[in-house]
Request: fold
Amino acid sequence: MATASPYYVDPSALLKLYLHEPESRAMAAWRAKTRGPLSVTHHGRVELINGLGLAAHRGFLTSAAFDAALAALDDDFEQGRYATADLLWRAVLKRAADLSRAQTPLLGTRSLDVLHVASALELGLKRFVTFDVRQRQLALAAGLKVISPSV
Reply:
């Protein structure tokens, strides 16, 4: 198996590979240059599936496009483009609480964003990919190198 890449990619950034969004082209170009499987946590995978479901619910995806996007996501896991990353949830939640206590009053970060930054830290990944401004600020405050792909 290929060595996992050193990046933690926020699921909302990964979702851009399955939906047509403003940053989709930049995300696809970045992914094409990135070697190795990307680590995706179990909760990250749920967020991806749910994001696709929300897109279908909101009428951005037809039923057929939703099914195709889910099949593409499953294929990415099966082909090793993503690797499921297991976490010790007590450690992630403790770190998330510490980050929330210190940073959320300043930055206004959402719980899921805090969980993803905490997950990256617990996995020992130093590079964090996101398009979200507040999450970017939190990741920087936590000492991560932040990448926001652009064309």
